[in-house]
Amino acid sequence: MRLRNIPGARETMVENEYVFTEPEGMAGKWHEVFGNEHPIRIEVGMGKGRFITDLAMANPEINYIGIEKYSSVLLRAVEKQNEIKLENLRFIRMDAESIIEVFGQGEVDRIYLNFSDPWPKDRHAKRRLTSRQFLERYDKILKKDGIIEFKTDNKPLFDFSLEETEESVFKIQAHTYDLHHDELMNEGNIMTEYEERFSSQGNPICKMILERR
Ligand code: SAM
Questions:
Q1: Active site residue 117
Q2: What is 1-101's CATH superfamily?
Q3: Where exactly does CATH 3.40.50.150 map onto the chain?
Q4: 113 CB under 6 A from ligand 1?
């Protein structure tokens, strides 16, 4: 995601009712935030938030939380939410590395990872959102039969993610190297901003769904 510093974005986040900028200590409290016991699904690295906002609009009986590191990127999603005010949508501005301080054990029903940054250098592998280090974190917050859905057009990152899954408590429930031509896996697919951009350039989209062994 190209970053442009937008003046005032940080301040907007701190003051906004839909955004949590100091989420540490919120573990176990998200159902209280939403005021119901509906399942909680999160997108890690949501960017401008189109995917999670579309999901929240389509599924009012599910709660959604988008996580994004940068205020300037998150701003777009927050501006939209200020207009549409979905009860079942919140955002957290944070680095997902500290995700286990923010969600309790089994508090999350599903995790979406879409077009995560590839971090191509080997020494940065643990920063990839599908690294074994991140999978270990997800294991702590994801409920027993929860799943992780990952989409990318980056084949090396996808292959890395398949390998990392082998080293984790998760297994591959399903995967494809060409989502948009896989009738079964593409059913009900909601496109992300990056997905639309890359597929319109002719790049096939890879998707995997992980579940516990
Ligand atoms: N998911 C969106 C999509 O598919 O259109 C955005 C994809 S963009 C390439 C990746 C986003 O993940 C960026 O906005 C980046 O700031 C965010 N991101 C990367 N690493 C992160 C981390 N550790 N914690 C939170 N956000 C992160």
A1: yes
A2: Vaccinia Virus protein VP39 (3.40.50.150)
A3: 1-101, 105-213
A4: no
How much is the average pLDDT of 19-35?
96
Q: What is the mean pLDDT of residues 127-151?
A: 98
Q: Which of 54, 95, 109, 117 is catalytic?
A: 117
CA angle 192/193/196 to nearest 5° reads 85
53 lines ligand 1 (CB under 6 A): no
CB of 109 within 6 A of ligand 1: the answer is no
pTM for the model? 0.96
CATH superfamily of 105-213: Vaccinia Virus protein VP39 (3.40.50.150)
Q: Is 183 exposed, middle or buried (0-12, 13-18, 19+ CB in 10 A)?
A: exposed
- For 64, how many CA atoms within 13 A lie in the half-sphere containing its CB? 25
Pocket probe mutation, ligand 1, options 2, 21, 51, 68, max atoms within 8 Å of Cβ: 68
